[in-house]
UniProtKB/TrEMBL annotation, chain A:
<dbReference type="InterPro" id="IPR027267">
    <property type="entry name" value="AH/BAR_dom_sf"/>
</dbReference>
<feature type="domain" description="PX">
    <location>
        <begin position="1"/>
        <end position="156"/>
    </location>
</feature>
<dbReference type="InterPro" id="IPR036871">
    <property type="entry name" value="PX_dom_sf"/>
</dbReference>
<dbReference type="GO" id="GO:0006907">
    <property type="term" value="P:pinocytosis"/>
</dbReference>
<protein>
    <submittedName>
        <fullName>Sorting nexin 5</fullName>
    </submittedName>
</protein>
<dbReference type="InterPro" id="IPR014637">
    <property type="entry name" value="SNX5/SNX6/SNX32"/>
</dbReference>
<dbReference type="GO" id="GO:0034452">
    <property type="term" value="F:dynactin binding"/>
</dbReference>
<dbReference type="GO" id="GO:0035091">
    <property type="term" value="F:phosphatidylinositol binding"/>
</dbReference>
<dbReference type="GO" id="GO:0042147">
    <property type="term" value="P:retrograde transport, endosome to Golgi"/>
</dbReference>
From TrEMBL, chain B:
<dbReference type="GO" id="GO:0031901">
    <property type="term" value="C:early endosome membrane"/>
</dbReference>
<feature type="region of interest" description="Disordered">
    <location>
        <begin position="1"/>
        <end position="111"/>
    </location>
</feature>
<dbReference type="InterPro" id="IPR036871">
    <property type="entry name" value="PX_dom_sf"/>
</dbReference>
<keyword id="KW-0333">Golgi apparatus</keyword>
<dbReference type="GO" id="GO:0005794">
    <property type="term" value="C:Golgi apparatus"/>
</dbReference>
<feature type="region of interest" description="Disordered">
    <location>
        <begin position="277"/>
        <end position="327"/>
    </location>
</feature>
<comment type="similarity">
    <text>Belongs to the sorting nexin family.</text>
</comment>
<keyword id="KW-0446">Lipid-binding</keyword>
<dbReference type="Pfam" id="PF03700">
    <property type="entry name" value="Sorting_nexin"/>
</dbReference>
Amino acid sequence: MRSVSVDLNHDASLLIDIPDALCERDKVKFTVHTKTTLSSFQKPDFSVPRQHEDFIWLHDTLVETEDYAGLIIPPAPPKPDFESPREKMHKLGEGEATMTKEEYTKMKQELEAEYLAVFKKTVQVHEVFLQRLSSHPNLSKDRNFQIFLEYDQDLTVRRKNAKEMFGGFFKNMVKSADEVLISGIKEVDDFFEQEKTFLLDYYSKIKDSTAKAEKMTRSHKNIADDYIHISATLNSLSADDTTILFVSVQKVEGRVASDQELKLTELLRYYMRDIQAAKDLLYRRARALVDYENSNKALDKARLKSKDIPQAEEHQQQCLQKFDKLSESGKKELTSFKGRRVVAFRKNLIEMAELEIKHAKVSTVVVYLVSSGLVWSQQLVTFK
Amino acid sequence: MATSSERSPPPFPDSEDQDVLDSEEVGGRDSDEDDGEDLFMSASNPLLTEMDTTLPPASQPSDVLMKPPSNIMDEPLIEPVSSQTENKPANKVVSEPSDDFVDLTNNVTDSPDEAVAAESAVADDAKDTTEIPLDEPSDEFEDIFGSENEALQEEVLVADVTVEAATDNRAVTSGAIEPPGDGKTGSDDEQEAKETATDPIIDLSYDLPASVAQQPPPARDKCFDPLVDLLSDAPPAADANVPSRATVDLFEDEGTDLFTEPRQTKSATQQQKSLFGEADEDLFGEPLGATSKKTISKEQKDKPVKTKAASHVSNIGGPLQDNSPAEPADIFTEEAVTTLPSITSTSTVNSKTNGVQSEEEADIFAKATVELSLDSPRGERRKDVKAKPSASALSQSAAASLAKPQSAALEELEEEEEEEQGDKFDIFVSVKDPEKIGDGMNAYMAYKLTTETQLAMFRNKTFTVRRRFSDFLGLYEKLSEKHGPNGFIVPPPPEKSILGMTKVKVGKEDSSSADFVERRRAALERYLQRVVNHPSLLQDPDVREFLEREELPRAVSTQALSGAGFLKMINKATDAVSKMTIKMNESDVWFEEKLQEVESADQQFRKLHALVESLVIHRKELSLNTASFAKSTAMLGSAEDNTALSRALSQLAEVEDKMEQLHQEQAANDTFNFAELIADYIRLLGAVRATFDHRMKAWQRWQDAQCALQKKRETEAKLLWANKPDKLQLAKEEIAEWEAKVTQYERDFDRVSATVRKEVVRFEKEKARNFKREIMNYLACLLQSQQQLIKYWEAFLPEAKAIA
């Protein structure tokens, strides 16, 4: 089941998937498998091992490529995070003494399942990242992307050193400051003006929703865990029917949690990142606009001074061209992004509603069965 | 019971529902069924009843042959019996046996071939085996045996107890009684034996013709008629018009003949018993067969045979009665003989001429009797005996039972439960309308206490008083002082909660204080109901006063910070110390085990309570989080520029809002139905442990007295040796005094032990019942909320799909 549907126009000429991943301590090694009919690749079918850092490298190079400034660069996959299940596992180990054996096993199973889910999700987001690249008409032709797919050795992407890390941080600071600065610029195109306000608004909302959805999901999980303990205790009280109830209810609750996580939280999370990418596009465009206006000013100045006029003119032309190009492709990208978002929401919301109904039905049946079971044992107990 | 070995596993829920249904249908009457039902599972019986109501007429013809007479006999017989014993708990049981009895008598006249009966036993077994796929029927079948068995035993009791019971009845019962005991087992054995050989049916079919060959045609007619009717309108039916009287005679002959035949295989006693067993089957087996549907022709074959079997039971009954001093029985049989033949003849004629359908009427009667007899073994609620035989009543009840939705299981169980309780105690206490009286720290909560009762010990049927919380505590103090040392489990009231009450006193109208008041109100109600449900505590004048008297002297000793409270604390501390110092060498394993059980249960309950509380907290958290998510989604929806998606998102927000409500309700459900219940039981378990402590104290007193006595004796010996006669007299007196004390204390200890034991058993029974009921409540709520959830999401689904 794909957690986030990104409406990919499945182009059979380049198919990418991650059939396998290996978790080695902190590193996760993904096997990236490519199937292609494109002549730019040497073989039609190949697999390479890649790490999370390689994905980040690919993303960064794409972002830095000037030609792609007018495109929404698919958001980079988040860093694999196995901390929370690990931490929980650790806690569980500490609390082992206070639990019955059964309870412990169940909790452990639950955690293992959670761990597995996290793992799968990680693989998926990485896969989706590559698939979005492969389905993009321009990005799929990127040289770095092709190298990423094809080069059968370790890419051995150099880890960022401290200076670079700091540089990145600094760049971010500059960017934010710049964003504030250029936000005052007068927009020449209504479309982008609208998009900007919309995306800004939408981003803050979706960020909020994501956080809330995460909380909600966590509460569901907590309840599922409570059920585990309760059923274990009931079991030791030998209240059999009720134990069955809680075991099953727990399963349902757990599934509700994981499905909500998958269908809702992941969706929101992904689009939060995607909107960030769209915002970046807008930023780049605004930057280009500012550049263009600056170049205009420079040209005016040059004309006043009658100095370096052709140079200034050329620069101004370049800026204009760049800006126009950015605007054009940005418009296209943003429109397609909108369509993509709606489709994805539709699909996920439908699936979530269906799953919720399914789970509720299951638990209805369970409750019903247990209650009729109680009717039965009721008589046993009463007349024993 | 031997048959239990082949009892199929608990049927699937549906069937259970049915049975609950049935019990309800029959419901409304007093529930002294316990003895009637404990031995076997009552579950399958109801099934029977329902089934028989649904009996397709077509399957009946065979029965009709035998049945109509029985019915006719039934009515007169039953009425007297029932009227005589009307008010006795066992009366239904009596009525049932009488049914049998009737059958028996009928059979005598009818044509009871023992042999056939024996064969029918075989047939039954055969049925058993054939029916194995149909688990339930076979189940019931055995149950029926069981119930019959009991019924008969009961009958004995009744006969003994009710002197005015009809003599004939008595005679019959006494006659019948003998067989039941071993008879049942015998039949069971037989069954098993038969079951191993799976071809009994074939045997039967062969046997029958054979027997017919031996006998004059009428007999054949009798045996075959039903068979044929059922299988197909085959020629043998034609024989039916042979004079029935003749048939009877012939049958009797045949009976004896055949009787021997089966005996060859089985021991004589077994035979008899099997016959008896068949009688049961006859009564009950019919409905059974009917339900299992005529599709199985074999079964049908069996059925007629069975009916025969029943008749031959009566035969047995005859001899038995003869042996026993009961003359009336004889008279009865004679009567039966005289009256029945004509009826049988008509019915046979009917069957001949009109075929299957003509017997419908007769069927109805048969059904009626069957149902009746079924009811009584169930013993839960006896239906009106008189009403039963009438076809209309039957059809009504049938309709009712059919009409009832199966899914109502939950509520019905509850109702049943309540009824039971009501029947037992006839008193309901409700605590309502908590009201804050006064201001500031002197404020207190007063509750309206309404009692509804049927008991004669109260002046009115309903009365209401106002009581404050400390009054409830005061009542507990008094009761535990009086009854605790005697080993009674005095239900404890909810604890004082200074924090909770302070909040209420300060007058904050927030949800947590409302929650607190409601929790306490419910706890008080449960506490009081437990008190009045206790047969001994109810008799206490203080309880009565508490319920009835307008003004109650203020209970002072309950204040936590008062001098009395301080004293109590000291007492408790000394108690705890003495508890530790007393080393009781437990003589009774039961107490040792129970104490351990109680202690571990206490621990588990405490753990469970903590868990449920955390569940509630998490659920409330979830509710909060859902609410904030809903809000956030609504915002997102408003920000969304795609109209359809925006709409869907705001719909989602609404769904989540409702979800929040559901979670909140569920949290309340968790609290009130589950956490509170557990809290109650933690308190109750404390009370149970207290009774163990009281028992230990009684023991200690006894031991101390013994020690003292020992010392006195030593002094006496010393005095004797020192030759001091003046003091000797005194010492002797003291010894006598202590001896009396020792015996007194020993008796006390024994009494306390007995009470504790009784109380613990009662407590456990109550606990099981209570838990089941509360869990059912809980489940009902859960079910409801899940259904709501489905509804909400289903409403949302089209919205999501509408996103373009």
